[in-house]
Recover the amino acids of this structure.
């Protein structure tokens, strides 16, 4: 009897027997692995606030996310692949949430649903509100809205499926759960006088020392308001910075090429030539760069509003 | 329990006068501008409260809340709103205390429903209540630094006392709050904070009072089968708790001995943010209280602020069309909420998701109408002070057809007519037919979670929970607002006070809502084209000084807004105090007593029959 050498399968000329024609498809392992994972994405059955209602509506018959293989909502984190953080994360609640996340088996994904879970939303100023679950957990997809409509949530879930499709088994960065040993659990916050992130222990200790010495603490010193900086060619500055920073010559060359192409394009359009030094890009203080662009002109804005109003009336 | 014959005083003023004669030196009129009610000397508060309940018939304590007058008169006060269950307006009484050592005797023996509200006042204002058996934090955790609702307490992301913040307007260039904070998070720590001495007391204190030590004596004395006592922790992410609610249940075998509700997992500082906001800013925030019935919340808040505005010169009451639209929205909201409540009560009983799917599918039809009118499915943000935000649209796309669920383009009035006359009654009948006679539902619910009428009143429960216990108290009739007096409907009431009756009363109320809606339709047609807004459309109205308590019969019960306008002689743009009397929060006081003696599986059903929503409970 003819024995099959598995290595022959690599060859595209491998003869497929007639009776099996049409039953065999050749694909990559990553693709079939991702296809099965993303088609059976089981979310965890837990809701936080208003967004949970829209999440349930998405699960119900009109929007029906079981069409995407997500109908099995599991109440136990041990059986869930996806945590939909559906609502405002409070300091009191973030402790159980981080604990639940740690209990989920890998691969696990987090979807921040709505404004609150993404960044605090309308309740951001509140003393008991965490300004976004990403302060504690890695988030894969953010869905904006307050609350997002079921359509928006579905869009977010499809975006997550696309993200999974793009992962490759060949790249360990994409599938770290096949790395050496289990990954580190996220440290669980502690409820003290305020919520304490164990990752910030040193910082808290240093601030307490400052306070004991009678020095200002707790609040970073910043100028009263950030004044807009003069207009700078943004694209060039952005492109120049990584090019200089990268130590991979091939990548640097690629970036430089792209930069040059962009400069040519801008010149052709009649804009400024791109020749900004990278040093200007970030201020030395380390704070976030001020938003560049036009200064907010109140008068012009009011005139615009008046004009629009006039159009409406006429 | 009544020694004296009840003095028949239907008029509040007569009751106050009689009270003044009885307690000559302890009671004064509240003479501040725009305020009403009486101020009671706190040392005699308990006696006065007892007299109010027993002699003058104010058996229902609607709301108890604290106000901090830091910088105005430097005292704190508790404000109580007492009503008669036979109807009529409130008797408002207050007790004042110093800010340095705030202490007011507890009224828990007069009205047990004050339990959670006093705990909240301790948590957020630091007022101690001698006589309260379980005075610990309720919304925040044990060990939290400070009492955040005090006016001089500033949160980590504090910018200014009031919006609009200078830094955001007019230039609009701001630091993000995380940039200002060293930790990059919404946290701050006290100056003397020592990490090495940190201990997380938040859990420990919850279990401390449960008395888990079981004595051998107790176990051997029992003649029946020996069972173990154990503590079961349900929540905060348990799927049957309707959100992030938590219960610590002590079981003897499978029977519940004690049940301690733990809340605050969705405490998102509604009231603190509400005091920074302008009056109008708060309107969208009210949507997020009871997020299933945002229109009802809008109306309650609008009524409260309109009461204040009515003292001003330029105020005009809402037009008739606006009132019609308001009632239309509110009653549709009630139906939406009850669909949800019934669907998820069945979920809790074990009929997983199928009844809920039917209910949600019907709900979507009403949401289509909300979306077409207000622009949003759930967070409608629709009412304004003096009217509504927008008139009904001319055409809408929706799926209300009685024949099938295809999306079609409708004339709005046709859509509403079909919805109200055909689709909704049909679906209510459908629920009734499928569920009411089910043997499983009957055996799981009849006689379970019994709440006697006296207890229902004493615990200040509201809405369907109160009325299913045989107390026909409905704010729409007891203390009418809007155009309810001219509408013909009955107050639904059931008498057995168990889960089954709470389910039935929701069906009854939906039918009554349909009856109201049918009367609204011709009024809408008659008033078509009339203005929906009276007076000036100011974004930041200056509100005359004073206090107001606006309450509505929300689907979950009596929703009240206590709003104080103070601090600025010209009339401030921001509320000094913005308190929400949340029906879910106060009804939960009765959860523990209702569950004792039942099996652990009944807890979720009893909780489901109260129909709580956490956005409102924790605020």
């Amino acid at each position: 009897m003819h024995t099959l050498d598995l290595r022959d399968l690599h060859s595209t000329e491998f003869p497929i027997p007639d009776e099996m024609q049409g039953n065999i498809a050749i694909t990559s392992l990553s693709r079939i692995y991702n296809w099965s994972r993303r088609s059976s994405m089981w979310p965890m059955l837990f809701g936080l606030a208003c967004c949970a209602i829209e999440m349930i509506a998405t699960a119900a018959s009109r929007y029906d996310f079981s069409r995407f293989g997500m109908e099995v909502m599991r109440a136990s984190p041990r059986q869930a692949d996806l945590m939909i953080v559906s609502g405002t994360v409070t300091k009191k609640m973030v402790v159980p949430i981080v604990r639940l996340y740690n209990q989920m088996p890998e691969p696990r994904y987090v979807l921040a649903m709505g404004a609150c879970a993404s960044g605090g939303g309308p309740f951001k100023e509140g003393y008991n509100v965490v300004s976004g679950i990403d302060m504690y957990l890695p988030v894969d997809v953010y869905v904006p809205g307050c609350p997002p409509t079921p359509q928006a949530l579905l869009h977010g879930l499809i975006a997550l499926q696309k993200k999974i499709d793009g992962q490759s088994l060949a790249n360990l960065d994409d599938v770290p759960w096949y790395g050496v040993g289990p990954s580190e659990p996220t440290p669980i916050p502690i409820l003290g006088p305020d919520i304490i992130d164990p990752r910030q222990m040193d910082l808290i200790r240093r601030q307490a020392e400052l306070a004991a010495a009678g020095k200002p603490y707790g609040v970073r010193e910043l100028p009263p308001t950030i004044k807009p900086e003069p207009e700078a060619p943004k694209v060039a500055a952005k492109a120049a910075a990584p090019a200089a920073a990268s130590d991979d010559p091939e990548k640097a060359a690629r970036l430089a090429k792209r930069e040059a192409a962009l400069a040519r394009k801008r010149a052709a359009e009649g804009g400024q030539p791109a020749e900004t030094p990278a040093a200007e890009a970030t201020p030395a203080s380390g704070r976030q760069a001020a938003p560049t662009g036009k200064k907010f002109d109140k008068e012009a804005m009011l005139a615009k509003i008046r004009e629009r109003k006039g159009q409406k009336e006429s | 329990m009544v020694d004296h014959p009840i003095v028949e005083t239907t008029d509040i003023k007569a009751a106050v006068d009689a009270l003044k004669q009885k307690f000559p030196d302890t009671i004064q009129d509240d003479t501040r501008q725009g305020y009403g009610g009486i101020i009671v000397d706190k040392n005699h508060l308990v006696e006065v409260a007892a007299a109010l309940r027993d002699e003058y018939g104010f058996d229902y304590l609607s709301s108890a809340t604290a106000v901090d007058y830091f910088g105005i008169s430097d005292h704190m006060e508790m404000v109580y709103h007492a009503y008669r269950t036979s109807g009529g307006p409130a008797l408002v009484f207050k007790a004042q205390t110093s800010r340095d050592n705030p202490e007011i005797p507890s009224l828990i023996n007069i009205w047990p429903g004050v339990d959670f509200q006093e705990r909240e006042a301790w948590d957020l204002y630091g007022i101690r209540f001698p006589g309260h058996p379980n005075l610990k934090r309720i919304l925040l955790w044990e060990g939290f630094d400070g009492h955040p609702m005090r006016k001089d307490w500033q949160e980590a992301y504090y910018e200014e006392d009031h919006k609009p913040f200078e830094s955001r307007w007019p230039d609009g260039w701001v630091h993000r709050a995380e940039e200002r904070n060293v930790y990059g998070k919404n946290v701050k720590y006290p100056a003397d904070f020592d990490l090495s001495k940190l201990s997380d007391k938040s859990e420990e204190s919850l279990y401390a009072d449960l008395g888990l030590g079981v004595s051998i004596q107790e176990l051997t004395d029992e003649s029946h089968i020996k069972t173990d006592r154990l503590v079961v922790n349900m929540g905060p992410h348990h799927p049957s708790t309707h959100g992030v609610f938590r219960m610590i249940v002590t079981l003897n075998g499978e029977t519940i001995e004690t049940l301690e509700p733990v809340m605050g997992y969705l405490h998102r500082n509604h009231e603190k943010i509400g005091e920074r906001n302008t009056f109008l800013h708060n309107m969208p925030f009210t949507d997020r209280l009871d997020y299933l019935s945002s229109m009802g919340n809008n109306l309650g808040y609008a009524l409260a602020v309109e009461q204040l505005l009515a003292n001003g010169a330029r105020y005009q009451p809402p037009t008739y069309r606006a009132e019609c639209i308001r009632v239309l929205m509110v009653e549709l909201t009630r139906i939406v909420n009850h669909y949800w409540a019934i669907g998820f009560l069945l979920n809790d009983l074990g009929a997983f998701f199928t009844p809920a799917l039917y209910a949600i599918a019907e709900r979507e039809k009403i949401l289509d109408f909300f979306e077409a009118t207000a622009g949003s499915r759930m967070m409608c943000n629709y009412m304004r002070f003096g009217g509504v935000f927008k008139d009904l649209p001319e055409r809408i796309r929706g799926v209300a057809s009685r024949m099938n669920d295809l999306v079609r383009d409708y004339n709005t009035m046709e859509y509403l007519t079909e919805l109200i006359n055909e689709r909704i009654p049909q679906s209510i009948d459908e629920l009734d037919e499928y569920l009411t006679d089910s043997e499983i539902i009957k055996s799981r619910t009849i006689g379970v979670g019994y709440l006697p009428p006296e207890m229902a009143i004493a615990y200040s429960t509201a809405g369907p929970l109160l009325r299913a216990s045989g107390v026909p108290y409905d704010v729409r009739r007891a203390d009418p607002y809007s155009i309810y007096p001219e509408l013909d409907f009955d107050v639904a009431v059931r008498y057995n006070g168990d889960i089954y009756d709470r389910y039935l009363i929701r069906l009854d109320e939906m039918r009554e809502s349909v009856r109201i809606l049918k009367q609204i339709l011709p009024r809408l047609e008659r008033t078509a084209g009339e203005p929906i807004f009276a007076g000036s459309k100011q974004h930041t109205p200056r509100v005359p000084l004073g206090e107001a308590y606006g309450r509505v019969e929300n689907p979950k019960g009596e929703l009240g807004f206590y709003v104080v306008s103070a601090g600025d002689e010209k009339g401030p743009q921001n509320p000094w105090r913005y308190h929400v009397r949340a029906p879910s929060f106060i009804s939960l006081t009765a959860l523990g007593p209702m569950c004792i003696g039942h099996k652990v599986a009944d807890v979720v059903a009893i909780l489901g029959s109260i129909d709580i929503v956490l956005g409102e409970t924790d605020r």
About this structure: Chain A touches chain B through 73 residues (CB under 8 Å). Residues 249-269 of chain A form the longest helix (21 residues).
